[in-house]
From TrEMBL:
Protein's recorded name: dual-specificity kinase
Record GO terms (molecular function): ATP binding; protein serine/threonine kinase activity; protein serine/threonine/tyrosine kinase activity
One GO term of the biological process aspect: regulation of RNA splicing
Family membership noted in the UniProt record: Belongs to the protein kinase superfamily. CMGC Ser/Thr protein kinase family. Lammer subfamily.
Keyword terms: ATP-binding, Kinase, Nucleotide-binding, Serine/threonine-protein kinase, Transferase
Length: 393
């Protein structure tokens, strides 16, 4: 790892024998000069108005990396598929926006990635960092290239669920990765199907997926269930000062919403939300605001414990009546919101509706992961020992 400067800059400082103005380069030299020109970075151009690096497919990033396609985009930057001429492999390079806060956050992400890599024994299930460098004020993080995300798969299959056998395999690997991170005192804080990538892009097509319009579509299932975690941009060390709000809304634990502080258990709540989403095809808590979110939780999981309500932060008091009951449906912002909450079922019923085999164990595991009180929630290691994972079917 280290900072890789541009070839252009390096060659500028290197002394080369000067060609006389009237001496034409030999055939071989001309060929080499041309090849070098083709391999250098394009002339410097401005970033776009969001600070993203502007590129064309087929050109070089640095002379080492040739840009092949765009693989994704996030808040921090764009991820490009590139060919690494040195190692002769495809890689995914995250090119971070040239904005101070993203630049600084990327340096922290690199620290975390290196910490994860240092302790890696080949089983962590976390994406591998290959290299990093600063290119024209953009931090570039080079990763092993992975396939589509679990969310991409759900979307491609028109949000029809994964078979429970596959959910078991995903769940086990996901918990292994979370346990690995927690052992290193790291909390991911942004677990969601978008941040879980399949290692391979290969898939098998099966008939049988019915969409809401009742048309039969081809069901696309991954050929291999191997997955890896990505996006350590919000990962925190347990002993660090934490920002009070973390996680993407749908996967956010109740202790975060209530301002009670958070730690490792918030990752396990997210895992619970992810597993049920993989089994049903849709986000468990499809919401964008706190009161509705808490009402949805109560509908699915029963009343929030009083001791958590009593300790809720000042900002959360407005969600409760007489200090102990959720102000619902009185506090709802609209009828649609009340309807959206009513549409939800108890967790056990939801599992029974969508899952044929393993219902009991799956519902029991989910109940352990979705315990309101973080101190009662299963840890990653406890969840890995749950009977759901030892069943053969
Ligand atoms: N190693 C990889 N291989 C293949 N695709 C990847 C890889 N890493 C990231 N991607 C793709 O790029 C997208 C953005 O990556 P990532 O989530 O790390 O960026 P981000 O800017 O930190 O996102 P966010 O806004 O969620 O914080 C991912 O959703 C995924 O589609």
């Amino acid at each position: 790892m280290g900072i890789e400067t541009e070839e252009v800059e390096k060659t500028r400082t290197r002394k080369r024998p000067r060609l006389g103005w009237d001496v034409a380069p030999s055939g071989l030299e001309a060929h080499q000069t041309l090849a070098k020109a083709r391999r250098s970075s394009p002339p410097k151009r401005g970033d776009d108005h969001d600070g993203h690096y502007v590129f064309n497919l087929g050109e070089n990033l640095t002379p080492r990396y040739k840009i092949l396609s765009k693989m994704g985009e996030g808040t921090f930057g764009r991820v490009l598929e590139c060919w690494d001429r040195q190692t002769r492999e495809y890689v995914a390079i995250k090119i971070v926006r040239s904005i101070r806060k993203y630049h600084d956050a990327a340096m922290i992400e690199i620290d975390i990635l290196q910490h994860l890599a240092k302790n890696e024994k080949g089983t962590s299930g976390c994406v591998q960092i290959r290299n990093w460098f600063d290119f024209r004020n953009h931090i570039c993080i080079v990763f092993e290239k992975l396939g589509p995300s679990l969310f991409d798969f759900l979307k491609r299959n028109k949000y029809s669920p994964f078979p429970v056998g596959l959910v078991r395999e995903f769940g086990h690997q996901l918990l292994e990765s979370v346990a690995y991170m927690h052992d290193l005192h790291l909390i991911h804080t942004d677990l969601k199907p978008e941040n879980i990538l399949l290692v391979s892009s290969e898939c098998v097509k099966l008939p049988g997926c019915k969409s809401s319009s009742d048309e039969t579509h081809l069901w696309c299932l991954p050929k291999s269930s191997a997955i890896k975690l990505i996006d350590f941009g919000s990962t925190a060390f347990d002993n660090q000062n934490h920002s009070s709000i973390v996680s993407t809304r749908h996967y956010r634990a109740p202790e975060i919403i209530l301002g009670l502080g958070w730690s490792y258990p918030c990752d396990l709540w997210s895992v619970g939300c992810i597993l049920i989403e993989l089994c049903t095809g849709g986000a468990l808590f499809q919401t964008h605001e706190n009161l509705e979110h808490l009402a949805m939780m109560e509908r699915v999981l029963g009343p929030l414990p009083e001791h958590m309500i009593r300790r809720a932060s000042r900002g959360s008091e407005k969600y409760f009546r007489s200090g102990s009951r959720l102000n619902w449906p009185e506090g709802a912002v609209s009828r649609e919101s009340i309807r959206a909450v009513k549409k939800l079922d108890r967790l056990k019923n939801m599992v029974s509706q969508h899952v044929e085999s393993s219902r009991y164990f799956l519902a029991d595991l989910l109940e352990g992961l979705l315990k309101y009180d973080p101190s009662e929630r299963l840890t990653a290691r406890q969840a890995l020992n749950h009977p759901f994972f030892s069943e053969s079917k």
